[in-house]
Specification:
By secondary structure, the chain is α/β, with parallel strands linked by helices. Helix content is 35%, strand content 26%. The strands form 2 sheets. A 6-stranded mixed beta sheet has the order 6-7-8-3-9-10, sandwiched between helices. The longest helix is centred in the last third of the chain and has 16 residues. The protein binds adenosine-5'-diphosphate (ADP) (2 copies). The site of one adenosine-5'-diphosphate has 7 residues, from loops. This is ABC-type polar amino acid transport system, ATPase component.
Length: 227
């Protein structure tokens, strides 16, 4: 599903990703941990083309992201992203936030998009909020809308960039529960997080980055947390 081959990333002279070799298969739930500034977010953002790579090869869903002929919109549609700061449309209702992408990009009609959106809002525990605007919601609720919006695009994988880092502690559990549900449904997920409980209980693989490099990559999550 996602393949990095000898990938390097520079921001100007700054070497942000060093010799990244990584293959993520369909259905894996990968958590990425490591000190701040170690390149976690950069790695994530290369996967859906928000950042380009400087060297090497990156294949996502059978497409080489360096190939100028590929449709980057298609890649962004196939690989959803959930951000720390939600990025909801402030002037649209919850329902419209979730239906907009499917209507504009997937060309769904209103009824179909709304049915899917209502099912997803129920799944994330926000069935009663469809007419609310983002400003009326808590951070945890906003993040659950963002997750529903991402799922509505029927992605093949979802990237999460510190999805709970901006939340008050009491909101974090609800968001992690939703992420766990999605993982159990077989979604391919790559999650940058400081939530070690999630990494341990939901993730089936853990990657530790430091200084732009992958220092550890373990599918024995229980063992990883022993030392
Ligand atoms: P930040 O500076 O962004 O807060 P941390 O240095 O706290 O990042 O590291 C993030 C997570 O990675 C922490 O929860 C920590 O437990 C884990 N971690 C840090 N160093 C190691 C290490 N050497 N081996 C395994 N896990 C580590
Ligand atoms: P992490 O997610 O582990 O905190 P990042 O991937 O956000 O790390 O950043 C890795 C390094 O790259 C940091 O030193 C950061 O300052 C630098 N960096 C990130 N984005 C940019 C950018 N757009 N331009 C220049 N440097 C950047």
């Amino acid at each position: 599903m996602i393949e990095f081959h000898d990938v390097e990333k520079y921001y100007g002279k700054f070497h942000a990703l060093k010799d990244i070799n990584l293959t993520i298969d369909r259905g894996e739930v990968v958590t990425i941990i490591g000190p701040s500034g170690s390149g976690k977010s950069t790695l994530l953002r290369t996967i859906n083309g928000l950042e380009s790579i400087s060297q090497g090869q990156l294949i996502v869903n059978n497409m080489d992201l360096a190939d100028k002929k590929i449709d980057m919109n298609r890649t962004r549609r196939d690989v959803g992203m959930v951000f720390q700061h939600f990025n909801l449309y402030a002037n649209k209702t919850v329902l419209d936030n979730v239906t907009l992408g499917p209507r504009l990009v997937l060309k769904q009609d209103k009824a179909e998009a709304e049915k899917t959106a209502r099912d997803l809002l129920a799944m994330v525990g926000l069935a009663d909020k469809e007419k609310s605007f983002p400003s009326m919601l808590s951070g945890g609720q906003k993040q659950r809308v963002a997750i529903a919006r991402s799922l509505a695009m029927k992605p093949k994988a979802i990237l999460f960039d510190e999805p709970t880092s901006a939340l008050d502690p009491e909101m974090i559990g609800d968001v992690l529960q939703v992420m766990k549900k999605i993982a159990e449904q077989g979604m391919t997920m790559v999650v940058v997080t400081h939530e070690m409980g999630f990494a341990r209980q939901v993730g089936n693989r853990i990657i530790f980055m430091a200084d732009g490099k992958i220092l550890e990559d373990s599918t024995d999550v229980a063992d990883f947390f022993k030392n």
